[in-house]
Amino acid sequence: MPKQKTHSGTKKRFRVTRNGKVMTAQKNRKHLLEHKSASRKRRLAGEKEITGADAKRIKRLLNQ
Questions:
Q1: C-alpha triplet 32, 27, 45: angle, nearest 5°
Q2: Any idea what DSSP says for residue 37?
Q3: CA-to-CA distance for 36 and 26, rounded, in angstroms?
Q4: pTM (two decimals)
């Protein structure tokens, strides 16, 4: 049986922590940043955990 390949688009957007949580960057931080306040941009800087069925599907694409 050949090895399963990791989904290239998924590996660029998500990461799995040591505890198995799926993390991704928050939305609204990619473009059109001029009119957003500095406090809003700082708040969006961190990563967010993906939960539920979405996390299960992402882990399957990452072969976790």
A1: 85
A2: -
A3: 15
A4: 0.83
26's tokens:
């928050």
Residue spans of the domains in the chain: they are 8-28+35-61
Q: Which residues contact 11 (CB under 8 A, 6 or more apart)?
A: 62
The arrangement of strands across the sheet holding 22-25 comes to: 14-16, 22-25, 47-50
- Chain centroid, CA 60 distance in Å: 14
Q: Are 51 and 42 in contact (CB under 8 A)?
A: no
Query: Residue 21: how many CA atoms within 13 Å on its side-chain side?
Result: 8
Question: In a structure prediction context, what are the per-residue pLDDT tens digits for the chain, which is 64 residues long?
Answer: 899 999 999 999 999 999 999 999 999 999 999 999 999 999 999 999 999 999 999 999 999 8
